[in-house]
Known about the structure:
Layout: H1 6-13, E1 18-30, E2 34-51, E3 61-77, E4 87-88, H2 96-113, H3 124-128, E5 131-134, E6 138-139, E7 152-156, E8 161-165, E9 167-179, H4 185-195, E10 207-216, E11 222-225
Parallel strand pairs: 3-8
Antiparallel strand pairs: 1-9, 1-10, 2-3, 4-6, 5-9, 7-8, 10-11
Helix pairs in contact: 2-4
Amino acid sequence: MSEDLTSKLREAEKEAKCVYKVKGFVHDLHGQYDTRTQAIASVIYSRMDTEETEKREKESEKKSTTMQRVKNVEIRTFPRNENGQLVAPLGGDRGYLKGMLRTAAKLKFGDQWRKRTSKYYGLKSRVVDGVFIQPEMVELGKAVSNPLDQPKAYLIPRVGATEYYDYISKAPFEVNLIVEGDVPEEVILHTLATMQRLGCGPKRRGRIEITNVERLTPKDNTQQRQL
């Protein structure tokens, strides 16, 4: 004999200590996890010639000659989902926001985690390991902000190469923070506030702006907080 426990599992999934709905914007987020090839023109050299005429002894006519090279380069960009939307891994245990949450919590409360006399003593594992962010991939619209032949370029001096990125200058996002352990609400809010000061995405070149935090209770009552 066997017993189907699926329904009980679904009920257990709903028993998180607390869930926070977080809304905001990503700014200047660079692409990652997909690539495309693009023809990019670059200047090889520019020469300026000066010719003087008899009628204009003090004036000169300048002629510039510019040589350009066109080459195909690899652009780091955003993957698309089945709806044709650009997506980025804001959620998930290895997503951008979880990494920012770990860093922000450590900056804000790290010293207190180790003090036995602090009310935050022992919170590290509950914040770092007990807060989950969903969904993993977040939709950010259907088009990047840069013209396709004008990605952002960054020279990597140590290897003498240039990396190219598509980027999204501003897009709304919405995620849920699922808190499994007993974490004081002030810790969540202060951590979210600090996250806004950190870099987001590849090389931490982007950032986030949080506009609304909504606490969802088991009875579906809500309490909104503006940051």
